Amino acid sequence: MRIFDPHIHMTSRTTDDYQRMADAGVRAVVEPAFWLGQPRTNPGSFTDYFDSIIGWEPFRASQFGIRHHATIALNPKEANDPRCRPVLDLLPRYLAKDGVVAVGEIGYDSMTPAEDEAFSAQLALALDHDLPALVHTPHRDKARGTQRSIDVIKESGIDPGRVALDHLNEVTVDAARDAGVWIGFSIYPDTKMSPDRMVEILRKHGTERVLVNSAADWGKSDPLLTVRTAEAMLAGGFSAEDVDQLLWQNPVAFYSQSGRLDLSDVDGAEATFAGNSILRGGS
């Protein structure tokens, strides 16, 4: 089994997680820029964070034979903080980087006017940079937020086939499917979506243009819930080919639209440096 997790926040995970993921068949990940839990107070903290997820984190992943890419954006929650708004001016610098395969996470948290402006501005950046867009649907009032997201996507002029609408559930999947976007689901221990519920959605909608991720971060989450979803699919009568389409071929197809997805050496041996997992300075 080979797995590509299209949305996971590895900067908040440990090397033990990387090892477990590699052992379970995870060979590639995409890490979207997101909120860190504590408010950032100036654009410089975003600069350091962006540098980390396009530089340090891909190197860290490579120690376990995992290919790491990123998406870059001002996230919806922090779009409401005037101290963070200048981050929008930094984004073109990062959206030109080789390892950046989409603009994201963008979308809504509380559906404020400030979020409206940031969402529209970043969809415009996706068009300018010929990149796909990864859209976060809000955790509160999800049905209204999903429809509002769909409306903004339509107004932007971006091809809906270049947009993934994430964190969907049974209430919002039909509207997203009808809009022609990729439909994304985050599998969590207690909230959002479970493996068994995901299998039922797949029975109804099939595996085409579906992305399943763990979205694992600093909260209660599990980077192996993509694997648990694969197991639930097989137990529910889906084939190994169905699992491969959902958990490998689909994220490859979506992020390949960036022209920057590099999956070379995904089955290569992990690198070590004089017995250490991290290259250290000095002579």
TrEMBL record:
Q: Mind listing the UniProt keywords for this protein, alphabetically?
A: Hydrolase, Metal-binding
- Give GO terms: molecular function aspect only: hydrolase activity, acting on ester bonds; metal ion binding
Gene3D superfamilies noted in UniProt: Metal-dependent hydrolases
Record family assignment: Belongs to the metallo-dependent hydrolases superfamily.
PANTHER family of this UniProt entry?
HYDROLASE TATD
> Could you tell me what this protein is called?
TatD DNase family protein
Species of origin reads Paractinoplanes atraurantiacus
